[in-house]
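Input structure tokens:
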């Protein structure tokens, strides 16, 4: 038995809520919801620390005791890089913090996990795997074209797009489709890379598979090393049978409509894929720091639309 946490990595409008709801019907597992992608920042700091040789040097080789005992009284010998920071301590703190946070109110032996739409980089996934070697990853993906349409026409997206001027003209509406397609292509590529980088720890599930719970969940629970029995599986299938979030095809605001999104989508998606293949992810665009990318907030950063902050990229 792995006994480790379960990380459900996905993106908006892929069925992540339905998947988490069904997994939570297992009494030995608690899948929590989203938490603003803060672990991305933990992983980023871990990578930053790992790039400074003096910070990953073993403490035993730094002569810290001599610096405390003698060096502080010899100002001329002060070394500006002398420090007691150790990467292992940082990782240990992260592990203890996450364990304490996500084990809150769990019963003994119950495993924890979470569903998050903001973890789609190999760096963050590997950081989690380093902290929790017994952890398991479930990557949930959806057809990109369907995903873009659903994200563009979700009620909260329509509202935000209207507030930010995307619905005021066709040119702005088209720019929003291009930005949404680009950001979602980056996320989808990241999820694919995670699955490829950690095949033994990762199981990929598609949006379409969610519609056949009797076929999906027995193998998924087996992958997670969780026991199964008929009554419990009946409850899982009952929870999974609830309708997934459905996009209203008639939803429209100003120049933003399903007809426009569908018309622009092939060109936008082709441009995104070509750009990614040629140059890799454009972080300035994703973080809305360049002339394009104004509507990248559609992909997860709705609460941060008025800032240049990003919890995803």
């Amino acid at each position: 038995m792995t006994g480790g946490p379960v990380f459900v990595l996905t993106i908006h409008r892929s069925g992540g809520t339905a998947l988490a709801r069904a997994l939570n019907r297992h009494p030995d597992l608690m899948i929590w919801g989203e938490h603003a992608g803060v672990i991305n920042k933990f992983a980023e700091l871990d990578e930053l620390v790992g790039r400074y040789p003096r910070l990953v040097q073993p403490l035993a080789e730094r002569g810290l005791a001599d610096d405390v005992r003698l060096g502080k009284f010899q100002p001329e010998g002060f070394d500006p890089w002398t420090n007691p920071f150790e990467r292992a301590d940082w990782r240990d703190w992260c592990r203890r913090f996450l364990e304490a946070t996500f084990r809150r109110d769990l019963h003994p032996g119950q495993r924890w996990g979470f569903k998050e739409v903001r973890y789609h980089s190999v760096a963050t996934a590997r950081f989690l795997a380093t902290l929790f070697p017994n952890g398991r990853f479930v990557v949930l993906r959806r057809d990109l074209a369907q995903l873009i349409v659903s994200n563009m026409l979700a009620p909260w997206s329509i509202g935000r797009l209207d507030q930010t001027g995307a619905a005021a003209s066709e040119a702005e509406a088209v720019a929003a489709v291009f930005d949404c397609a680009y950001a979602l292509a980056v996320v989808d590529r990241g999820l694919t890379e995670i699955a490829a980088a950690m095949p033994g720890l990762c199981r990929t599930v598609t949006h379409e598979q969610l519609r056949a719970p009797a076929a999906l969940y027995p193998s998924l629970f087996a992958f997670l090393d969780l026991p199964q029995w008929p009554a419990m599986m009946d409850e899982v299938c009952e929870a999974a049978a609830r309708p997934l979030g459905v996009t209203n095809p008639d939803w429209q605001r100003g120049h933003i409509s399903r007809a426009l999104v569908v018309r622009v989508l092939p060109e936008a998606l082709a441009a995104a894929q070509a750009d990614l293949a040629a140059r890799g992810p454009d972080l300035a665009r994703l973080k809305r720091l360049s002339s394009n990318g104004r509507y990248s907030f559609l992909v997860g950063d709705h609460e941060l639309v008025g800032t240049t902050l990003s919890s995803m990229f």
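The beta strands are 6-9, 29-32, 111-116, 136-141, 202-206. The chain has a mean pLDDT of 92.
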